[in-house]
Amino acid sequence: AVVSTQSTGREGALLLLEVGAFVLPKDHIGDPINQELTFLGHAMGTMPLDVRLTRLIMFGLVFDCLSETVIMAACLSLPAFMEVPYADKNQKLMSYVVRMRMARGTFSD
Question: To 10 degrees, the CA torsion angle through 24, 28, 29, 31?
Fold first, then answer.
């Protein structure tokens, strides 16, 4: 399916509005795409991250816990590394059977 650039641009603009990167004037009528960036929006544009993670880092800067928020953003930017992709359902079933056998009926990991 082909996604139109206007709908993705609108969704992106709404996301930027949600995280505080856009400012809406008092007499706002119409499309959020034609709005101006805030200081936060300019700072988000300089970081090669998802805007939600950039917002987290900016709040860490404001609340003087920058190193902790950078660590959290780094962890959140990774794919779920604890999930093991299975090739087929049989492999997933065998994994479950082996874990249950090792747990000896305690349902423990």
Answer: -10
